[in-house]
Design a protein that fits this description.
two-stranded antiparallel sheet; 175 residues; homodimer; 7-stranded antiparallel β-sheet; 39% strand; Pnp Oxidase, Chain A; disordered C terminus; 9 strands
Chain lengths: 175, 175
């Protein structure tokens, strides 16, 4: 099946901050969306292979940071193409801590959404975590980065663990 | 809690086609996203109050149509601000049928994604349905409509059953 039609689905781009003890982590996700309005709940799909999956599963917390269009590939690559098991992704990124204790980058982030996970669904390679919004705030001004902006303007690639990964032919090389 | 930060989340806009016997229905949704790549699965959050919820729950099928930016408020309003219990939403809209039997509008739709529901999660007022993509195709050329385009350019409102509905102050009046 040619999955090109799936590339017409619109997404934003986010840094999902998580934490276990003193160990902070952050990863890029494009699958963040509000599922209910009362109470306010937000879902995020995370690969079971990710360190973030391990941290969210053990703590039941994460904090979504909404990426600004001003974020460059170096910033995104730090969170998106390395594993928090191998490197400290916040070593060179200034950050604050959300009430949950999860990190929020101080740069390139327009808003944060702090989540207490209340439900999850096992979907093969990924888990869709559903979290109640316990806190949220605006942290910057600008335009939220969309996934299409990331791919078309920044020419960003999609890592194999992303929900939307399929064929390398769909992944433009980073310029 | 001021939920303004949640409006920085990026969404597209879709017509979710469903069917029970000869009864066809379609509703607008902004919460459609791919959750896994192998097999390809897509999630959609639907209010329990919607007729679509009743149809998907009974048949386990729906077909996502990706809205084009060229869709106007009359077209969107037909699917978004009426109930299929009261009116035949496809009475004046030309359509084709996906392999699932669910309707796809022939106009203002860039792509269709046919789903066989394989899982669902109860989230208070809504159900997040997860479906395996059984067929998909490109049906038009253009730019996918984003939720922010709908709100900012078309000045579209958000109905009370939408996952992102909260305060009328956030809902601009239709011009």
């Amino acid at each position: 099946m040619d999955i090109t039609p799936l590339f017409t689905i619109t997404y934003g781009l986010y840094v999902v901050g998580s934490r276990s003890g003193d160990k902070l982590n952050g990863q890029i996700s494009n699958t963040v969306f509000q599922v209910t309005a009362d109470p306010v709940k937000v879902a995020v799909s995370i690969s079971k292979a990710e360190f973030t999956h391990e941290l969210i599963s053990s703590t039941g917390k994460c904090c979504i940071g909404v990426l600004s269009e001003e974020a460059d590939m170096t910033f995104i690559g730090n969170f998106g193409f390395k594993s928090g098991r191998d490197v400290d992704k916040f070593a060179s990124i200034p950050y604050t801590l959300a009430p949950s204790g999860c990190p929020i980058p101080e740069v390139n982030i327009l808003a944060y959404i702090d989540l207490e996970i209340c439900n999850s669904i096992d979907v093969d390679t990924h888990t869709v975590f559903i979290g109640e919004v316990t806190d949220c705030g605006i942290t910057g001004e600008g335009t939220p980065m969309t996934y299409s902006y990331y791919r078309e303007v920044l020419c960003g690639k999609t890592p194999p663990t992303a929900p939307s990964y399929k064929l390398e032919s769909h992944n433009l090389e980073k310029k």
